[in-house]
Structure to design on (342 residues):
C-alpha cells in the first residue's frame, strides 16, 4: 500500500519539470519517503478487536519537528486544550470529526471498529509534500508553500487517509490495478462524505473535491481530484494535467502507480457521485450506507474488481431497499453510466 493523498504522478511531474531546483529536490524526496512507507507497511497486521461499548475517541498528536522519525514528540492528548500550533490543533480536530462521522453515520467505533486510538504526527519532514496513513497512524507534511500548503488543512485529507485504515481492517483490497483503484476510491468517497457531513451539505450542495484548499496560490487547479468531473481538478505546467478518467472507455492501462490506482479511481468515484446525486439528500445516508456495507460486510474480497464491486453494491442496495427501489436503480444506473457492467 502507498496510501498517500498526493498521487505519485503529480510529484514525478514536479521532480522532472519544475523550474525551481529546490522544488524538484523536495518532490524527489517526497517520492522517496512514500516508497519507504509503502515497503514498511507490508508487515503490519490488521486484526479487528472485539467491539467496545464506549464510543469515545482517544487521540494523540505528535510533532516530528521537521524530522523523519515517527511518532515524534507528543504535542496534544485526548482532552488537552488547544496548543496554538495550527497543524497540531487541526489534526486533533479532524481526527475527532472523522471519528464522530463514522460513529454517527454507521455506528462504527474508530478505524478498526473496536476503539482503535487515533494517532497522528504533524510537521513531518522538511516541507514534505504529502500526507499518508502508514498502517498505524496519520502523518502530515507542511507542504512547500509554493505548490502545496499544509496537509492538515483540508478535512477530507484526514478522512481519506483514515479510511485506508478501515479498508485495511475490513475488505483488505489489494493495492494494485482495479482493487487498488477501489481502495483509493472508497477513501475519496468517504473523505468527501465526512466533509459533507461536517458542513451539513446535501449531495447537490457539495463540491465533490478532494484536497480543496491544498493547492497554493498561483497553481492552476482547485484540488487533487474531483468525484463529480474526474480529470478536471488541475492543469498546471508544474503538476501536469489531472489524468483521471470518468468512464471505462478511457481506462488507463499503465504499470505506473501500481497499475494506476490513483488514476483509474476516478471511474468508481464518479459512479458514487452519480448514485448519490440521483438518490438525493445526504450522500452518506443511502449511497454511503450501501458503499459502507459493501466495504465492511464481507461481500467483496481483496481482489474484487470494478464489476465485482458494482455487483456487490447493487446486491447491498437490494437488501437494504429492494430490487426495484429508486435507490437500487440509481446505483445500477450509476455504474452503467461509467461503463461498468454488473
Amino acid at each position: 500500500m502507498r496510501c498517500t493523498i498526493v498521487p505519485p504522478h503529480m510529484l514525478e511531474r514536479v521532480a522532472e519539470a519544475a523550474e525551481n531546483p529546490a522544488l524538484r529536490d523536495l518532490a524527489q524526496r517526497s517520492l522517496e519517503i512514500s516508497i519507504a512507507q509503502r515497503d514498511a507497511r507490508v508487515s503490519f497486521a490488521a486484526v479487528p478487536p472485539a467491539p467496545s461499548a464506549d464510543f469515545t475517541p482517544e487521540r494523540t498528536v505528535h510533532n516530528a519537528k521537521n524530522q523523519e522519525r515517527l511518532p515524534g514528540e507528543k504535542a496534544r492528548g485526548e482532552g488537552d486544550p488547544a496548543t496554538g500550533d495550527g497543524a497540531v490543533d487541526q489534526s486533533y480536530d479532524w481526527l475527532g470529526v472523522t471519528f464522530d462521522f463514522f460513529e454517527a453515520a454507521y455506528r462504527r467505533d474508530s478505524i478498526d471498529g473496536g476503539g482503535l486510538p487515533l494517532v497522528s504526527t504533524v510537521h513531518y519532514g522538511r516541507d514534505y509534500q504529502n500526507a499518508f496513513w502508514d498502517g498505524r497512524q496519520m502523518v502530515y507534511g507542511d507542504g512547500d508553500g509554493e505548490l502545496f500548503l499544509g496537509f492538515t488543512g483540508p478535512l477530507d485529507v484526514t478522512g481519506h487517509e483514515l479510511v485506508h485504515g478501515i479498508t485495511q481492517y475490513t475488505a483488505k483490497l489489494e493495492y494494485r490495478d482495479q482493487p487498488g483503484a477501489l481502495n483509493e476510491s472508497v477513501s475519496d468517497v468517504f473523505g468527501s462524505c465526512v466533509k459533507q457531513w461536517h458542513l451539513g451539505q446535501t449531495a447537490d450542495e457539495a463540491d465533490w473535491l478532494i484536497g480543496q484548499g491544498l493547492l497554493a496560490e498561483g497553481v492552476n487547479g482547485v484540488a487533487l481530484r474531483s468525484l463529480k468531473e474526474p480529470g478536471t481538478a488541475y492543469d498546471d505546467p508544474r503538476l501536469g494535467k489531472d489524468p483521471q478518467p470518468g468512464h471505462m472507455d478511457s481506462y488507463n492501462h499503465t504499470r505506473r502507480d501500481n497499475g494506476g490506482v490513483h488514476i483509474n479511481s476516478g471511474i468508481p468515484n464518479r459512479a458514487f457521485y452519480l448514485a448519490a446525486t440521483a438518490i438525493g439528500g445526504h450522500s452518506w445516508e443511502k449511497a454511503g450506507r450501501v458503499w459502507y456495507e459493501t466495504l465492511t460486510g464481507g461481500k467483496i474480497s481483496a481482489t474484487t474488481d470494478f464489476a465485482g464491486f458494482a455487483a456487490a453494491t447493487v446486491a447491498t442496495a437490494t437488501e437494504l431497499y429492494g430490487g426495484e427501489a429508486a435507490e437500487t436503480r440509481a446505483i445500477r444506473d450509476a455504474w452503467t453510466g461509467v461503463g461498468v457492467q454488473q
Remarks:
- Residues 177-199 form the longest helix (23 residues).
- The first strand starts at residue 59 and ends at 63.
